[in-house]
Amino acid sequence: MPAPIRLRELIRTIRTARTQAEEREMIQKECAAIRSSFREEDNTYRCRNVAKLLYMHMLGYPAHFGQLECLKLIASQKFTDKRIGYLGAMLLLDERQDVHLLMTNCIKNDLNHSTQYVQGLALCTLGCMGSSEMCRDLAGEVEKLLKTSNSYLRKKAALCAVHVIRKVPELMEMFLPATKNLLNEKNHGVLHTSVVLLTEMCERSPDMLAHFRKVSLVPQLVRILKNLIMSGYSPEHDVSGISDPFLQVRILRLLRILGRNDDDSSEAMNDILAQVATNTETSKNVGNAILYETVLTIMDIKSESGLRVLAINILGRFLLNNDKNIRYVALTSLLKTVQTDHNAVQRHRSTIVDCLKDLDVSIKRRAMELSFALVNGNNVRGMMKELLYFLDSCEPEFKADCASGIFLAAEKYAPSKRWHIDTIMRVLTTAGSYVRDDAVPNLIQLITNSVEMHAYTVQRLYKAILGDYSQQPLVQVASWCIGEYGDLLVSGQCEEEEPIQVTEDEVLDILESILISNMSASVTRGYALTAIMKLSTRFTCTVNRIKKVVSIYGSSIDVELQQRAVEYNALFKKYDHMRPALLERMPVMEKVTTNGPTEIVQTNGETEPAVLETKPPPSGLQPGSQANDLLDLLGGSDITPVIPTVPTSKPASAGGELLDLLGDLNLTGSPVPAPAPQISQPPFLLDGLPSQPLFNDIAAGIPSITAYNKNGLKIDFTFERSNTNPSVTVITIQASNSTELDMTDFVFQAAVPKTFQLQLLSPSSSVIPAFNSGTITQVIKVLNPQKQQLRMRIKLTYNHKGSAMQDLAEVNNFPPQSWQ
């Protein structure tokens, strides 16, 4: 048989292929020749054939038939054969293949070989693809090589030990004696791998972390880091004028782990961190990498306040860097530290605001989040001016988040009610189509409560919608205000700005234009029709025109609009004596919660009291199916299904509930119960109770619990008891996310034994923001008539990092005060 072609010739031949089909034909032809050679047990060219096979594997073609040939090369006495054999094993084998166990004995023999390069090959292979069984069998040999005086072998043995610890954590103590002298080594390769090994041990075992703190590992690391900073030029380790930056970064990371929550260790490293922060050259990216690790270490340990200010100033300098990646990591780091060092971050406010004008969308988003976190009572006017300018010019994907952030900040820090109203109206004018659903009722409530601003507000809103109905939320608020305060608009009583002269007919013209506009949504037309009806008690000269408009819409194809018009017609004909009382001006609204007590919600790093919203569950998960899915959660047949609350199509806040006055003539003040799904259960326990007061204020006496904490998702339960029915416990769940990516499509489900009755209300959102920058809240009501110990099984589903996640958990640690 002729000699096979060399690897170099094969590469050259494959590169001449003009099409994919031609390349496949060449590969198949060569694979057939290699298979024939393997069948004939050709030892002469086995090494060459496996090398070619590895190249084909790198191109993406199947090469599994060469696995046993790799084992034969490993067993060879030639170094060249062993080298290709071990490389093939690392590429073609892994612990899922049983074949890899056959090479355990060969690796053990080679670890004890007289040649250091053969030992190095065996260590590399074991550290790359060794299974837990192989690691248990060969850990003794690795530990022995870790104590050798040969620096070439020690650095490879240290990295191999890292792999062994990851596979078999209980073998960690075996390597502890060998770590004592590792940091005394002069060789930088050994030092680097030793720090990696020590970092792995500290991260995986709290006992190891305590041990290394006790044996004064920090002073050793400080000494090494100081020598690196103070040492002169060394051509072997110099990168852009900095001595071994890779080792410096590794040491800084290990110091961060050792100093976290430890006063003594943090004190020992304060000086060296200050030296690194002030002496590192920042003209090259290498220096910036070291400074960034230094900043992370300073912020993570119990460092001095002056050192933390220095770290934040370094991040401030990063914001001026031309490199977008450096600006991005600076903004991300500042966002994490803004809560603990708010004043220090405030000094860089102007630089952060400038980042809103960056062309990079990732930098823009981080700058926007950080800007909202910096808003306070002192700078709210200036910051809102910048953020409103950003809202004008930003891309559509930013407008919703930016509008929500402005609403929250304005509500918390507004210097005056007029400024608050002007700010929200500016947002609605600029990005009205992107605001959240609760923006309209919230603004209506704000306007209602600002009695002295009614004339000013209705005049501003009237001018804002003249001829432009594109921003539907703005048109809805304007329609509502014109309906309520149309008499103030016509009378020209505005004192805050120059009043305008408007007639009753001109006002009705605007509202009729909204009714017939193609841009008006069904909800907006409902607002306009109700506003026209209200004006029948505010206006005196146009009542007949109003009757005519209302009667026309009694035959509208829009069922909602038709129902309103029919009811209003009935009001004109049969109940005209009641009309002035029914349509009188709204009283001042109190901001009440819809699903229970007010919760504290984290928004962009600020603690913000927010009203829980009733929102529909995510698509694809209907309330009925949620109840049925949970029937088997606790096991057995004594399960009571969840009685979900079906959200209505009306706005959920107090202002929204009052918009449709005649939707139901239940004027007692108590909300109409939502229709329940067809489940054969008695009416729910709370359905007949008066709405005020529902809960008492003894929540402080019932301790909260953490019901779930895994994979960055944390679920906390807080408790309240009903005033009217002591058997009712109200549980408010609060879900937070400490990972770096948002969790989307979040669904919380729960089931209890049959002796209890449970109602699960709708969540405030389906997205849990990353970095604990926000929470989802949801309310559970539990009836426990027999005062038995509460037990609950919960089911969590969500999407994270592109994967669908699902988990079950049992909660049995409810405090006695919650059920006794």
What does this structure look like?
The protein has 33 helices and 13 strands. The protein is of the alpha+beta class. The strands form four sheets. It has a five-stranded antiparallel beta sheet with strand order 6-7-8-11-10, with no helix packed on it. Strands 5-9-12-13 form a four-stranded antiparallel beta sheet, with no helix packed on it. Helix 9 packs parallel to helix 10, helix 25 crosses helix 26 and helix 28 runs antiparallel to helix 29. The longest helix has 20 residues. About 13% of the residues have low confidence.
What is the CA–CA distance across the termini?
Answer: 89 Å
Q: What is the share of helical residues?
A: 40-55%
Strand content: 5-15%
**Which runs of at least 5 residues are low in confidence (pLDDT < 50)?**
593-700
- Kindly provide the radius of gyration, computed on alpha-carbon positions and rounded to a whole number of angstroms: 35 Å
User: What's the overall geometry?
Assistant: elongated
Structural class: alpha+beta
Number of helices: 33
Strand order of the largest sheet: 6-7-8-11-10
Assembly annotation? single chain
Mean pLDDT across all residues, rounded?
82
- How would a textbook summarize the main sheet? 5 strands, antiparallel
Would you count the extended β strands for me?
13
Please specify the SSE layout and strand pairing.
Blueprint: H1 7-15, H2 20-39, H3 46-59, H4 67-74, H5 79-92, H6 104-111, H7 116-129, H8 132-146, H9 151-167, H10 188-204, H11 206-214, H12 217-230, E1 238-239, E2 242-243, H13 245-259, H14 263-279, H15 285-300, H16 305-318, H17 324-337, H18 342-346, H19 349-354, H20 361-374, H21 380-393, H22 396-413, H23 417-431, H24 439-449, H25 454-464, H26 472-491, H27 504-516, H28 522-538, H29 543-552, H30 559-573, H31 579-582, E3 599-603, E4 606-610, H32 623-629, E5 639-640, H33 654-657, E6 705-710, E7 713-721, E8 728-737, E9 744-753, E10 757-760, E11 775-783, E12 792-800, E13 803-811
Antiparallel strand pairs: 1-2, 3-4, 5-9, 6-7, 7-8, 8-11, 9-12, 10-11, 12-13
Helix pairs in contact: 2-3, 3-5, 4-5, 5-7, 6-7, 6-8, 7-9, 8-9, 9-10, 10-11, 10-13, 12-13, 12-14, 13-15, 14-15, 14-16, 15-16, 15-17, 16-17, 17-20, 20-22, 21-22, 21-23, 22-23, 24-26, 25-26, 26-27, 26-28, 27-28, 28-29, 28-30, 29-30
